[in-house]
């Protein structure tokens, strides 16, 4: 029988493309330098599925304290969970002295808060479990009453670094952390702090002040976070530039700004063009059960402008229900292009979730799920296999 070394690279690519497990692909890449070069090449990666494969999820397990735990995904049951242990983090052995809370995850990184039980001091820690690398971030100039434990703190991709095949390398040298602190005292304000990895990096800050009403978060789309203010005012934050902007949703023939938009009836989604849409609904029987979909039509130095794109009249028949008294719009990750999530309070024990296609008006009933209302200690934080980012150093022939 001939050696596999006699097979040309093109044939080996076909063999590797036939592997249905990323674990097997990892093992093949570890077998020899030639196989690793083929698997890490731009050609192979352009042919292979670019969808990330989740190794498992971290959870904030609650007993006497909150402590992180890892659960492998069903497709990766062969993974040894010991490789995902966080025992290497500083202070993890002092179980009764520190509290831990996972705040976010992104690809192969985890973002955690460590609170000293005695001093109540919070430390923000970024780590890469598989390599057991970590970094304690310097504290941002948070408001005196704020702490990491209660603030919105998210982990973002770093600056674009093409590691071949159009993917972005994410690791300890390429990440961003965004902290948001909302202060509703007197004239309200929203403060944003952005940390970018790299030598000598510090926190950048941006604020929006003198808010006349409480801001309510309605969703994220195309790298921007959105909040609803008073009446029809909406605020947005560009997560890459840390710039705030605001705009007012236009009036229409049905509603000439005669009432304040109810906060839980505004939700963000994306249209079939992957651009942001803002959905506003009344949700009360007798008010036509209308859902108004707004789209952005202008953005530049003169500000941004949104227009009414369409109006959807929701009915019990559309949802397959005997009657429709109330409904709510809600934001959910991951956002599905062209879809809008609808929640109907229980006609029987439980809650009904639906997904509305904004183009075809087709409605799909979703499985019963309350993940959008889970506290932090019940939410899953997915962790991806590091391939192919960690193989980018072997992409060229001269690195074999």
UniProtKB/TrEMBL annotation:
Protein name from the UniProt record: F-box domain-containing protein
SUPFAM superfamilies associated with the record: F-box domain
Domain named F-box: residues: 7-48
């Amino acid at each position: 029988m001939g050696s596999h070394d006699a097979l040309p690279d093109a044939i080996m690519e076909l063999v590797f493309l036939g592997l249905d497990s990323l674990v097997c692909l990892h093992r093949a890449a570890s077998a020899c330098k030639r196989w690793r070069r083929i698997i890490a090449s731009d050609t192979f990666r352009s042919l292979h599925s670019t969808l990330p494969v989740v190794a498992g999820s971290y959870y904030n397990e609650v007993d006497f304290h909150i402590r992180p735990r890892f659960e492998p995904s069903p497709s990766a049951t062969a993974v040894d969970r010991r490789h995902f242990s966080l025992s290497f983090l500083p202070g993890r052995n002092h179980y009764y002295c520190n509290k831990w809370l996972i705040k976010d995850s992104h690809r192969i990184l985890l973002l955690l808060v460590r609170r000293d039980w005695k001093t109540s001091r919070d430390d923000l820690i970024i780590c890469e479990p598989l390599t057991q690398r970590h970094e304690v971030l310097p504290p941002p100039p948070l408001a005196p009453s704020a702490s990491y434990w209660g603030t919105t703190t998210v982990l973002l991709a770093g600056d674009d670094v093409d590691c071949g095949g159009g993917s972005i390398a994410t690791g300890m040298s390429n990440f961003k952390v965004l902290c948001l602190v909302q202060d509703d005292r007197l004239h309200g304000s929203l403060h944003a702090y952005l940390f970018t990895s790299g030598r000598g990096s510090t926190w950048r800050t941006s604020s929006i002040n003198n808010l006349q009403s409480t801001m309510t978060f309605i969703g994220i789309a195309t790298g921007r976070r959105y909040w609803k203010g008073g009446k029809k005012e909406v605020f947005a934050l560009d997560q890459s530039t840390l710039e705030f902007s605001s705009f007012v949703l236009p009036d229409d023939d049905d509603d000439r700004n005669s009432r304040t938009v109810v906060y839980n009836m505004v939700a963000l989604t994306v249209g079939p063009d992957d651009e942001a849409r803002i959905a506003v609904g009344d949700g009360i029987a007798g008010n036509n059960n209308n859902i108004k979909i707004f789209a952005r039509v202008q953005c530049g130095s003169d500000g941004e402008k949104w227009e009414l794109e369409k109006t959807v009249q929701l009915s019990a028949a559309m949802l397959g229900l005997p009657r429709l008294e109330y409904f709510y719009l809600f934001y959910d990750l991951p956002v599905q292009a062209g879809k809008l999530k609808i929640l109907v309070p229980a006609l029987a024990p439980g809650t009904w979730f639906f997904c509305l296609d904004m183009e075809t008006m087709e409605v799909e009933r979703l499985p019963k799920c309350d993940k959008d209302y889970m506290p932090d200690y019940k939410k899953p934080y997915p962790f991806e296999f590091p391939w192919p980012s960690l193989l980018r150093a072997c992409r060229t022939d001269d690195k074999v």
